[in-house]
Each structure stands twice: as C-alpha cells, then as structure tokens.
Amino acid sequence: MKKIDIDKAKKSLEYLYEIYSEMSSNADELSKKRCPYKNAKSRCTATFECRNQHFLKNSTELAICTGSDLLDYRPAWKI
Question: Dihedral (C-alpha) 27, 34, 39, 60: value to the nearest 10 degrees?
C-alpha cells in the first residue's frame, strides 16, 4: 500500500479551502441581489408565493420573475 504524503495532502486541502472560500464569498454577495429561486431564464422556481411572480394566462410554465437584480428581493417573500 502506498504511503500518504501528509504535507502534500495538507497543502492540497488548504488550496481547495481557498477555492471554495472565494466561491462562497461570491455566492453570498450575489444572494443579496439576486433571488436564489430565479433560474437562468428568469423563471421563478419558488414553491411559495412571491409578489415578483408573474404568471402568464393559460400557461403551464413557471412564473416569470419580475424582480430586479439590483434590489434586495428578500422583503418580497411572504412568510
């Protein structure tokens, strides 16, 4: 069985931690401006009511998200 180089493994984990920390920070910032339920096609995937949902008549598609990515969307949620 091959022996594990503990120093190399530690450096690798530290590097992965840096990558994921940066990704997490970016996601945190985006989450303050863009609703996490808005998909790439600006459709709402939320399973609850939101005043930013716009349903098209006679459509079975998801609601259109009318929220602005420049505003704090969180008060729109009805809890």
Answer: 150
